Amino acid sequence: MTVKMYDIMKMQASITGNPVQGVGYRVFLLQKALGYGIQRFDARNEMSHEKQQVIVRAEGEPAMIEEFCSFILTESPPSAIISDISFQEYTGYVISIIDYMHLVQVEQLSKGIPAIISIDKKQDRMLDKQDQMLDKQDQMIQKMDHMESSITGEIKDLRTDLRSYMDRKFSVMEQDIQQIKVKIGLM
Fold first, then answer.
1. How far apart are the first and last CA of the chain?
2. Which of 6, 9, 32, 163 could form an S-S bond across to 62 if both were Cys, CB 3.0 to 4.6 Å?
3. For residues 69 and 13, what is the distance between their CA atoms, to the nearest angstrom?
4. Is residue 4 part of a domain?
């Protein structure tokens, strides 16, 4: 019985441009590597001479790796701007694609958790400000209630004053009318 050993090919691609990082390039490549059945894959962001680079390593059957290299040359995420792509053989260790996916998940969590904490803190500050505004609103309503009571009291006092003033005036007018009637002989 003979066991056929498959040839294994390793490669490293350096994708240079601005931007090639922060545009989803590594996940873009991971998805395609999964589609090609590549079992070992790694992609990292690096800086080289102040230029952004995505360094991709893959290991698999030569036909798969060649197709993957063709894909790298012809396709990229929509927001990526590529200035150079180079390939070389690679002899080092390439982690399994499953382990790489776990690394990507951990990386995303490490980015997401601080963002969630920041959102939570901002939400707490917003709720504190909202509570302060509601307290101020309650204070203003209390002041308005006090002012309403005060104004209502003043109006009642004015009505009382006006009524007593008018009563006095009418009384004086009635007396004046009585005197006029007496003088002209109507009474």
1. 151
2. 9
3. 8
4. no
Tracing tokens 């294994």 back to the chain, one arrives at 8
* φ/ψ (deg, to 5) at 11: -145, 160
pTM for this predicted structure: 0.61
Note the pLDDT tens digit of each residue in 33-64. 999 999 999 999 999 888 999 999 999 999 99
- Out of 46, 68, 95, a domain closes at 95
Same-domain pairing of 85 and 149 = no
Same domain as 131, residue 88: no
91 shares a domain with 13: yes
Cβ neighbours of residue 139 closer than 8 Å, sequence gap 6 or more:
none
Domain that holds residue 45: 9-95
